[in-house]
Every structure is written in structure tokens, then in C-alpha cells.
Amino acid sequence: xxxxxxxxxxxxxxxxxxxxxxxxxxxxxxx
Length: 31
Known about the structure:
Elements: H1 7-30
């Protein structure tokens, strides 16, 4: 899978990574 050729898919991928990072930080704060 090459996301660099598809700007839309790349944006979605970055959004997913951001949500994951946010979820991890919230879980760490709640722990």
C-alpha cells in the first residue's frame, strides 16, 4: 500500500494516527 500517491487516503491515515495517539494519551492519563 502506497499512501503517498493518494492525498485523500493519506489524510485519512494521518487522522487515524492522530485519533490513536489521542486515545493512548487519554488511557495513560486515566491509568
